[in-house]
Amino acid sequence: MSEEAPRHLLFASPDHKSNHPLVDVPDHTPTNPEGYSIYSNIKDGKSTRSKSMAIVDLFDVQSNKEISLEEVMDGLRYVMEYRIKGGRFPSLDYDIMKRLADGLLMNMGNSGKKSRFGGGAIFTEEADVAFQLFGEFMLEVQEFRQAVGEKSVSDLRHALKLDVRCGSGSTEQEQQAAVALIALLTTTYPQFADWKELVKPEGHGNVQKCMQEHAEYVRAEAMPEIGGVILAPQALCFDRRIKRVLKMYRTSLQSGLPSEAIPALQEHYGRNVLPEPPRTSVFKMLWTQFTDFMILLLLAVAVLMAATKDFIPMAVLLIVVVLNAIIGFTQEYKAGKALDALTKLSVPKAQVLRDGVTSMINSEELVPGDIVIMEEGESVPADLRLAEVSQLEIIESILTGESVAVVKDPKEIRTRTRKLPIGDCKGNAFMSTVVAKGRGKAIVVRTGRLTEMGKISAAITGHTKVLTPVQKKLALLGKLLVVFAIVLCAVMAGIKIAYHHPTGESLKVALSLAVSVIPEGLVAVVTVTMALGVRRMAARKAIVRTLPAVETLGSVTFICSDKTGTLTEGKMGAAELWTSDGVTYGFTESTSLDPNKGHVTLMAGSGEMPQVLGKTLDQVPAQMLISLMVSSLCNNSSVVQKENDEQVEIDTPDKDTNVEPAVGVPGAVEWKGIGDPTEVALVVAAQKAGFPKTFFHDLGYTRIYEQAFDSERKVMSVAYKAPLDTASPSGEHYEFVLAKGAPEEILNRCVGYLPTVAPDSLASPLDLLRPSQVELTQTVTEEFHDHVSDASGRMADGGLRVLGLAYKKVLINGGGALDTGLGDGLDKFDNLKDRKEAAPESHKPTEVDLLTAANVNDGNDDDDEEDVPPGYAESDLIFLGLIGLIDPARAGVKESVRICKEAGITVVMITGDHIKTASAIAKELGILEEGGRAIKGEELDLLSEQAIAELKPFPNVFARVSPDNKLKLVTALQSRGESVAMTGDGVNDAPAIKAANVGVAMGIAGTDITKQAADIVLANDNFNTIVEAVEEGRRVFDNILKFIVYLLSCNCAEIFLFLLCAIVNVELPFTVTMILWANIIADVPPAMALGVEPAEPGLMNRHPRSPKKGILTYTSFGVIIFQSMAMTLLTFGVYMWADKSEGHLDYAHAEAFTFLTTLQLLQGFLSRTMRTSVFRVNFFGNRWMIFGVVLSFVLMLIGIYTPGFNGILNLVPVYGRTWAKVIVGCVIMVFLSEMEKLVLRRTGWTM
Prior knowledge:
This protein is of the alpha+beta class. Helices cover 44% and strands 13% of the residues. It has 44 helices and 31 strands. The strands form five sheets. Strands 12, 13, 14, 15, 19, 20, 21, 22, 23, 24 and 25 form an eleven-stranded mixed β-sheet that branches. An eight-stranded mixed β-sheet has the order 10-31-30-29-11-26-28-27, with helices on both faces. Strands 3, 4, 5, 6, 7, 8 and 9 form a seven-stranded antiparallel β-sheet that branches. Residues 1-53, 114-120, 220-229, 644-666, 814-842 and 861-865 have low confidence and may be disordered.
């Protein structure tokens, strides 16, 4: 190949250079539907945008009918061939390349058809193109190589499917491409140097054979050198063997790191400290309370009142300001506790092994590669990969919310993704968790910011809380009122002076009116209304931590809720058992842990009642008994009975002294499952049938071997010694392998199944396990395979988590030698074992390389694997059946979801469960409707926040998601203007909860940090409580709006009355003192009473109030103008009718004051509803309103009729004719108010 030739992988002999699989670009330009620009910006050489769009399409193509995967792939091939290849774009945007790598990996596994039982696959043409493009981008683009290098070996093993591409069903071109990519990966990346780690163990033979057959086709160019020190990246390494991890971090379990290498490692990795949270001083918190715009406004009003020598109203305002500052400071101080709690999570000291010596050091000095020794009671100082353990159990409740200690196991976990849930990382220990039992030795793999705690800390401290909608709206309203007050003051003073009134008097009246514009009770009423809302929500099991969250809840447009424990009961139970003879069984009270409650039922046909089965051997079918035996014995969980603060174990594996559950145990208060909820449900299912573990243990079944479940095999199996009287003199005896796991994986390992067995053919159902002269099993056929697949699909569509059950009998007497003759394959791969985790030959050794060379060269890096005895292999099994587990929906959740939809709120389910199970539950609850959408977390990873926000339709179900997916989802929704409520329980949910408009933490399952980061804590972890809280939030905002409309209507009535009198040049109807007295008695008591007004009917039938909409809309402005003008004109008419001659002017003033103040108090009653007729509201529904109006009315009478005091207010007593006018005015006001509400109802205008 010439130096000028483009760099690519060649798969042909020198005579046939055109026949290489990675480059086969068509001569024609592919077609493209209108509206998509796959080739955007190609003409000017900018390929980044086209790839960005294609990456979105790689995800969206499955649901977008306007574009096909073939067209997306053609577009990428065009870009590669004509714009990138040949070094034209050796460097591109890293984020795009990272998502492109994810997209190609996701699509290269697509197959059009599976061979029998899923043993192989025929890849689609698009999948082959994705595989080819993956190799070409690796060769051409630096950032793509970097993104691939950050992938875990498990991710690549699952996506590349090299075992299938090298299988017998693959094409020659697919085999050549697979061998070439293996060569490229193993020679480019030290961490992928062992090709066997990129292939499933059962496929090693196929791949090795393929490499031998196609060795002459492999030729890969050397990749460009990457400058700088080459050290292992920080990662959990849960899928790597211990010796491999030791080599990666250049350390040793016997001596640890050399002290001389620590400074260089610290310089590269940084110190092991959590990000320092920003701190706000107490003084600054207090100062912030007094710099709020509304508070500044009230202080300005107080100054004006002091200038006019109205000291009593000034004192009232100052009290309001101080109270508001105290409440605001308290709330902000509590919110800061979440950040303070983070500082307590760092561990001060660590026991570390360096230079072969164990010593206590400051944990800040730890670096990846350090060997840490953990003892009981100690806190974990960093994220660790466990190497040696002795009965080690760690409490991880600070991260997961689960108080039960996790049993640790250093064995690697083969999984598809590096984003394994924390609770499943059995081979890791995390910073700030606590050793509950045992001891261990571990390798530091992540420190400081990159630890799980560091990421959470950075996310919490990095997101500032935005102002709530009501805070923004009140601030805007205050600014508008200031502008209005200034304009009004100028107009009023101008008019008075124009009519030659004294300038001083004119300015004083103008200032008094300006003060009237400002609703001085607004801040106090808002605060009190929210506080009362907090109290009501607490009674409904929703604890509000930040006051404005009460109102914010009322405006949420999206509720993103966890499934388990919030939408569902959080109790896994067996719902259905389908056996291989086609019979279906059900379980009653399946989620109750009490083994004495519930039965197994034989499911009958439609219209027939299920038959309850007995609990003795002669009353149960053989297939059901053996299936439940597998459920119970292939299990590591148990159920305990709590009595008098003691735990009595009911079912625990491998113990001779199990306690049988006694019926009607006196004093039994609680049953508790210990272990994985799925396994607990299987234990309970067997107990309800009457056959717990102890039943089989008492018969003599003894566990002798176990292969633990892992997400790669998706199977768990155990071996039991059988109590069969068949032992021969030569020592032959029978043992059983019992297996459970994913239905497809179990079925693929089965060669037979149990058909229908006649009840009278066996003396006991357990005789199925005995050797028999008659073969009771039948061979698995394609028809049976489809039969099982249909049953599994039906159960999954019903929201069940489905597991397959199988067993086999093993005749034990010696056993053949294990087959270990795979070898290493091609000569060029022979020496790769010795070069794993090694730098390339051209790499110049650094100081760290030289100091740690002894650790790297110390022996090989392969752990001694425990070989599975041939008889215990998970193969040649007999299929028994399927068991479906369910976490039932909480009572009332379906109705709450319906209420949310009517209220215009979109409910989104977020779960770590399988997408099919999650979708079924979502459909049952009404969350996912016809035409709705469900996506997986791995698909979400491919999309930018902008792309997520633009998804149409927006998904209602997010399955298999991680906590960082939650944060991404929140920010994406907020970017499109949505108001989001997000639920969570673990510490890793805290960033998303803090970023959401309303963060909701679980009170039962939630961790302390999550609760402190949240705005609301659910005391009962119930979704229904969220909906009730939303309704309460809407009620709070409704009431805030009611008293704002009421206050402004009353104050504007005074203003318009004064302006009208000033314009016609008549004596003003009130003195300045009367204005202030009217504001004191008419504003605060009725407004406070409106704050506790019950919710109006149909409150949850309205759509959420847009966060962009102001607190006052055009409609509410119109209502304020209408109500204020009605009161103004009626009062103006009464005042103009009155005798204002000398000697009667004081009476005219008193009459106008009485008339307007009474109308204002009446308006308090009328403001109880915004649209509903006041006659449809229970008069005594708000007793505080009655009390407030009566109090204000009495104060008005005191001001009118009390001698001396009425003189201070410039008032005189009024008589019967005045009260007659008041009554007539009230009747007219009620009529006008009803007409206004009728118009609002008819037009549908919203406030």
